[in-house]
Amino acid sequence: MLAVKLLPYLAAWVAMVLVLLRTFSGNRPVTAAAGIVGFAGGVAGTQALFHASSAELAIGVVKSSVGVGFLLLWGVSVAAIYRSTGRNMPAWGKRFAHTRLFAGIVALAAGLLMGGVTACRVAGADAGAMACLLAALAAGVLAGAVLAVEKRLPQAFTVSPAGLTAAVVALLLFGSSSIIRLDLFAPLTMKVMKFAHDFVHQFFESMLIPDHLFFSTGTWHYIGLLFGKGVGFWGALIIWFIPVILILLAISVERLPAVAHIRQGAARRKMVAAAVRSRRLRLLVPAASALVLAAAVYRSTFPTVEYWDPKPLAVVATPNGEIFIPKKGEIDLEDGKLHKFLYKQGGKQARFMVLMTTGGKLTVVLDACAICKPDGYGQTEGSVVCYYCKTLIPLETVGKPGGCNPVPLPFAEKADGVHLDAITLVNTWDTTVQTTTRIKEDGK
Amino acid sequence: MKRLLRPIWAVLSSRAVSPVVIGLFLLIYIGIAFFTDEALTTLIGFTSHSVFLAGLFALLPLNCACRLAAEISLHLGRRRALAGNAAAVSPELFDETVSLPASGSDAEVPHPAPDFAGLEGRLGAAGYRTHRTAGALSAWRGFSAFPARIVYLTATFCLLAGILISLTSRLSLRSPVVEGEPLPSFAGDRVVEKIALRESGGMFLSRTLTMEVAPSGAGEGRRVFGLYPPALQSGFFVYPRYLGIGLVVRFSAPDMPAGFEKPCVLNIYPPGKEEAVEIPGSPYRIVLSLADPGDGTDPYISGRMAFLFKVMKDTEVVFTGKAAAGGEVAHDGYRIAFPDARRLAITDFIRDFGVPLIWGALLMLVVAAAIRLPTRLFLPRREMLFMDDAGSVRAFSRAEGRFRDHGGVFHEALDLLEGQVSYPVKVDAEGNQRHEAQ
């Protein structure tokens, strides 16, 4: 089981070492050694963070580091496209980039991050420390093997610095995408959706465009597309892939060498052909990185984790507008599981949840947050997850407002059960759930 | 002074400035997003109030203006060179520069003057337009991207300057505009005679709203404010946001015989939308909404308005019902009446000098794209310049767009010229000049 868990990470590590060695082909031993040290350090550091502080901190550190790597990839890709289209970008640090020190630093950083991501996969489990040790040993052995094999690859196959960045970051994102708490793509979709919503709103206000009240249905339908889940997903895809596409473009439109000074046509053609061939080979690594990024998106969109997600039970209100749910009835509210309910009033309906928090108190919240489309929540170990954006909400924070937390509802907990106001429930659903109130199949 | 200004100019006109500044704002946005969900609004707020961020943003339009000046200068320099009016041509003006004969040839020996007339004929046959002067030949084909580029840079400048002006100086005042009442004092105190909402079959808008304003005492005539483009009144754009009803609510209760009467601005359109009126000094609250007539008509359009009300004493509902505008309802000692109801539009009065710039910029961007796309796709610009430099030739080449070459024409021209100028001139016994290779 452990081997199955580690296999994708070790495969990603092998690919990473291969690309690193090919990029720094003049400093192979240093690159390999620094990479192995980095991987072991990343594994050990993350494991230590898991044990010394909270899992949240360890996960947060690794996730932020991968996020910074993604931003770095953006910067590198923009610089690459500017440089290749003939802009006069200064080539700072070109000499340093060929030194042994630089190769060591890059390999160490890549190893640290890959080690950290791998450790997050196995850390926290009972056999976490042993698994981490095994992972580090396997990584070392594999790096040694790659060092022996890499020399046999054709010399013409080279990797550009931008290609290296693309490959390392893509492999890190691939590794993190299968750990729901490390995944960056799902939160990115949510942020993009929120940005699109805010941008459209700000644009309308800034440009003094009339409110939706005055728009024709057809026009509003098209504008409404900007508020849908599709915008978050497709927008995130664009942000996800643009750096690699820019790097591919940068290499493709790189200026061919000036040959006008050569007076033999054959020599000119030979020189241009060699440059074109080299350019094509340099496209291989960024193209493969694009495939790895696509795999990361797939793993993020279709996670292999299963959640507790009961079908909502229909509830009714008393004549004075109160909804009462007994603690011990058809269901046991205090069994530690999430329980969903559906209330209908006229043409309106609202979904809500009751669950016991880690503090031993019942809390009542909407089955929706104030940001995402109301796809609802599922429960997993120690947290609930927003189905829309895949954000994990620790159980201890359920009942608190803000972010992607389920919207809390005012309620009274009495000895017999929980009491809440039906009008407040419906109004809170209507006013808080911004995107759509369409409830699929009576809940889920 | 020149030495000081040169690096400043180089930085300000650099193509790297805009991506760097945008990247910095992106990083700030990401940083804010860690702390709040309202990252864009917060960033806009920060930029509006922070001199540093506003200054950083100002680099964007400044960079556009500098690029505009730099590119105009480059273009004029290139035009001068192609017209044969430039004494010296800077290699920066072109993509590629080549000198003939190749290095290593004997500079001491006189070389024949290049035959530009022959080359001109060849280039003309290859589809180039040419211009020959004494000692220079220029050739070109296609349309330059320069006009589109200038429009694009101007548009970008206007857009960014507009956003900056809007961010730092926008003044927005929200006020209800009520039928029969004067406009807010800052907007001119003129009486709003009529507010009309009408169904419309427009492509974008299904309804139109007009606000008719009476002539002013100062001699200004009657005006009608529409929806879009927004009207300008006393320097403010009139931007109607929501519709509502100005309703006079009269209420009395058994424990409040003196009653209560107040004109209320209610944001209760469309029908069904609720708003509560608090009755000060009492436990009462009246929740009001516009009743749907049920016959498919819109009460705001028709003017036939009735209101659903719910009187709440603390959290208990004590009286509910429906009353038409001008009507009164009583029950169990509770009495509620709506003596007057008028249409109103909750309106933002906005002073923003950036808006026209942004509108203009969007228009210019469309124009730039309309010029650039066809010229780029079908007739991209290709330019060559050959100059006689005391027997040798300096050749310059430039091609706009993805394909940077001339399909081999430039290289062939160079090959031809090389054949003419690479071999020293020999003078035979009769005094005739001939090339060594002949």
Quick take:
The complex is a heterodimer of chains A (444) and B (438). With 444 residues, chain A is α+β, with helices and mostly antiparallel strands. Chain A has helices at residues 2-23, 28-52, 55-84, 100-122, 128-150, 161-177, 185-206, 217-225, 229-252, 265-301, 422-432, and strands spanning 313-315, 322-326, 339-345, 348-356, 362-366, 377-380, 383-386, 392-394, 412-413, 417-421.
Q: How would you explain this protein's 3D organization?
A:
The complex is a heterodimer of chains A (444) and B (438). With 444 residues, chain A is an alpha+beta fold. Chain A folds into 2 domains: 2-187 and 230-301, no CATH class; 313-442, Rieske Iron-sulfur Protein (3-layer Sandwich), CATH 2.102.10. In chain A, 55% of the residues lie in helices and 11% in strands. In chain A, the strands form 3 sheets. Chain A has a 4-stranded mixed β-sheet with strand order 1-3-4-5. In chain A, strands 2-10-9 form a 3-stranded antiparallel β-sheet. Residues 434-444 of chain A have low confidence and may be disordered. Chain B has 438 residues and is α+β, with helices and mostly antiparallel strands. Helices cover 34% and strands 34% of the residues of chain B. Chain B starts with a helix and ends with a strand. The model of chain B has no long low-confidence stretch (mean pLDDT 87). Classes of the chains: A alpha+beta (444), B alpha+beta (438).
SSE inventory with pairings:
The complex is a heterodimer of chains A (444) and B (438).
Chain A: H1 2-23, H2 28-52, H3 55-84, H4 100-122, H5 128-150, H6 161-177, H7 185-206, H8 217-225, H9 229-252, H10 265-301, E1 313-315, E2 322-326, E3 339-345, E4 348-356, E5 362-366, E6 377-380, E7 383-386, E8 392-394, E9 412-413, E10 417-421, H11 422-432
Chain B: H1 2-12, H2 17-33, H3 39-49, H4 51-82, E1 96-100, H5 116-125, E2 129-133, E3 136-141, H6 146-169, E4 171-178, E5 192-199, E6 207-213, E7 223-225, E8 231-233, E9 236-253, E10 256-266, E11 274-278, E12 284-290, H7 299-302, E13 306-313, E14 316-324, E15 328-331, E16 334-351, H8 354-378, E17 382-389, E18 392-399, H9 409-421, E19 425-427, E20 433-435
Antiparallel strand pairs in B: 1-18, 2-3, 3-17, 4-16, 5-6, 6-7, 8-9, 9-10, 9-16, 11-12, 12-13, 13-14, 15-16, 17-18, 19-20
Helix pairs in contact in B: 2-3, 2-4, 3-4, 4-6, 5-9, 6-8
